[in-house]
């Protein structure tokens, strides 16, 4: 399978979009790490915009997650 991206890639959260844009969820709760696109690592510290995401593992302790 391949992914046709004609716009920006959004990870973790999305900005305010028109109501006609069909999305199922606006939020992600969890941890993303070791992201690779086309076998190349992506540095998530270098982003163009931040739409409410938080760095680090602040949610881990609150949710009791074990990674």
From TrEMBL:
InterPro entries the record matches: ConA-like_dom_sf (IPR013320), Laminin_G (IPR001791)
Alphabetized Pfam families for the sequence: Laminin_G_2 (PF02210)
Domain Laminin G: 3-39
Protein name: CELR2 protein
Species annotation: Geococcyx californianus (Greater roadrunner)
């Amino acid at each position: 399978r391949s992914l046709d991206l004609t716009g920006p890639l959004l990870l973790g959260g999305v900005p305010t979009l028109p109501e006609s844009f069909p999305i199922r969820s606006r939020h992600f709760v969890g941890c993303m790490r070791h992201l690779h696109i086309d076998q190349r690592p992506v540095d998530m510290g270098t982003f163009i915009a931040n739409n409410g995401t938080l760095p680090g593992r602040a949610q881990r302790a609150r949710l009791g997650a074990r990674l």
